[in-house]
Structures are given as structure tokens and as C-alpha cells.
Amino acid sequence: MHGPLTVLAALLPFTSAQLNTYAKKAGLKYFGAATDSPGQRERAGLEASYNQYDAILRDGNEFGSTTPTNGQKWLFTEPEQGVFNFTEGDIVTSIAQEHGLIQRCHALVWHSQLAPWVDNATADWTPETLSAVIVEHVANVMEHYRGKCYAWDVVNEALDEDGSYRDSVFYRVLGEDFIKLAFRTAAKVEPGVKLYYNDYNIEKPSPKSEGVVRIVRMLQEDGIKIDGVGLQGHFVASRPPTLDEQIATINAYGALGVEVAYTELDVRQTTPVNETSLEWQANAYRDAVGACVQAEACIGVTIWDFYDPFSWVPYTFPGEGAALLWFEDFSKHPAYDAVIEAMRNATVSPCKRRQQRRRAQMAARSAELQ
Ligand code: 9MR
Prior knowledge:
Blueprint: H1 4-11, H2 19-25, E1 30-35, H3 38-43, H4 51-57, E2 65-68, H5 74-77, H6 87-98, E3 102-110, H7 127-144, E4 151-156, H8 169-174, H9 177-189, E5 194-199, H10 207-221, E6 228-231, E7 234-236, H11 243-254, E8 259-270, H12 275-294, E9 298-303, H13 313-316, E10 320-321, H14 334-345, H15 350-369
The structure holds ligand 9MR.
């Protein structure tokens, strides 16, 4: 029997609903949002910050995790060989630490936003010299953030659309050994952190998703630790992958014994938006988050910032944008409610329910002890 209040609650839009709270109820570890340091935003010609933005990011009911959008990348952390700078990355890490947010750390070895001294036509790398450079970078950056990351994106975007390896200085000099070296080094530096391979367009079955399976198997066959696959989830509102495609792909990665997370979810649309494109967007968000809640291996969802003016999309795809969950005036997209709905309605698997119960019991026990 449903009482009148239950019926009313079911009819009301989830205006006060909060993403991380519902994510945990649905058995996930977190619902997170990436964020940039104010200096980075200013450099991009944006306002550095807004009180309202800062309050939402720090509201643990809304977000339980964050990722620095830029500050931990090679360009910033080792701009010159052997010269390390953690200023930008540390800004986001301190927010995470102060507000008890999980931090997904991003990204150690990536062909883009790479320091020019590495990707330099005149640098005459040999397998030996470039290997030393990778080891030095991974070791120093991970050492600096030791104990502060739940996971590291160790290698980012190594694949082309056809599933073969992307051309990069790392691949040219070392072949697929650069992936092995990065993971092997990461595992040595901090054995307790989750090590991820992260990429885009790997959320539905395709030659590229098969490439991911190949990478995971390659590492496993060599006895090298890999813990997770990050699905970036940069989608287009008019043609996102379906719920079933996403569940099938997550299950395929999960079958290899690794966990999965959506690491950079956003759903772009043509701007200005209209009712139809907002509805498509809501459906795309519902399906992505729904797939994560329903497929056993998926442990969490991170959106790539949460406030439209701070999104990367309009810079890269002129005429497209409004990809996140908060509009410029801080009102929420219809997709916000769709995400909550996906988490509320999910039929949570028995395994996730067990995890949930265990977490609740531990929380109750630690509350008793306090
Ligand atoms: O959001 C990031 C943006 O500020 C940078 O200019 C851009 C440079 O490539 O990188 C963006 O983040 C990327 C992420 O690190 C990896 N996956 C794709 C993301 C969007 O480009």
C-alpha cells in the first residue's frame, strides 16, 4: 500500500534530489564531477569561480568525487624535463581533501596536453631514454599524490577508432611496451591505488572496445596490474549509445575481472537548446547512468564538470554545448532528474545490494564507536 505522501513524492520532480546520495543508495561508490582550478578557467577567459558553483561542488550529497580536469596532466606537472610543478593539480586535491571527496586522478601518460619537450620532433628518443622519461614522470607525479587518489588514469586514449594503436611519440618509440611500462611503474609506486585505462568511444561494442579488451588482456597476461577501464562517455544527444549496448560493453570489460567507471560523462547538443534536444539529452544521461547502476562491474559516474560555462565542448565543437547538468543561470537541466530517476529506479543487482549492506553496516559500526 502506498500512502498519500509516497504517491506525492513519486509525482514531484526531484528538485531537492541529490546525485551522490542516490548513487550510493543505488550501490555505486560515488557520483562525481570534474573541476578545474580557477587559474585555468581564467586563462580560458572565464570567470574564475562563483560562490554558487563552489557550494554545489562541495555539497557531498551532490558529488562524492572529483577529478582535476587539467592540473595533473604532463604539460603542467613536468613542463620541463625533471622540473615538477603540482600547483594546479594541488588546488583540486585540497578541495577533495577538505570536503571528503574521493579523487580520481587524471592522467599520467597521454599524447595530448603533453609537455612540448617530450613531443618534440628534434628530441631523438630511443626506447631506453623515453622509457626513463616515462618512469620518472609516473613515479614523481604518483609519489606526490600518494594516498590522495582512489584511482589513476595511467594511460589515456592509446587507441584509434579502428582499435589499432594511435600514433603518438610513445607508440612510435616503444610500441605497446609504453602501456606495460606505465602500468608496471604505477603499480610499483602505489600498489593500493586503482589503475585504469581510460578512453572515449569505447562505451558500445566496436573495434575500439575490442582494442580495450586486448589491452587489458595484454597486461594481465604479462602479470601487470590493471584494475579498471574508464569510459569517458563524451556523448552527442542525438546519437548516444543505447542502454543495452552500454550494459553489454561494461559486462564485457567486467568479465576480464576489472571494474568500470564513467569518467568524463557529458552529452552535448546543438545550441541554442530546444525541448527536443533537452529530452534527447535527458534520455542519453538516463541510459548511461542506468547502465552503470545495472551492470555489476560499474562502480561510479563522473561528469566532466557540472556547470555549462565551464565545459570544454563549445571550444572544441563550435555551435554545440549545454552538455552538463547545470545551465549558465544555475538552473538544472531536465537531464538532472533523468539521472536521479535512473538511480532510483534501478534494479540493483544482488551483488551491489550486498556491497551496499556491507557499507551501511560499517558506517553504523563506526557511528557506534564514535
Ligand atoms: O576538459 C579538458 C579541457 O579543458 C582541455 O582543454 C582539453 C585538452 O584536450 O582536455 C579536456 O579534457 C579531456 C580529458 O582530459 C581527456 N578526455 C577528453 C577530454 C575533453 O577533451
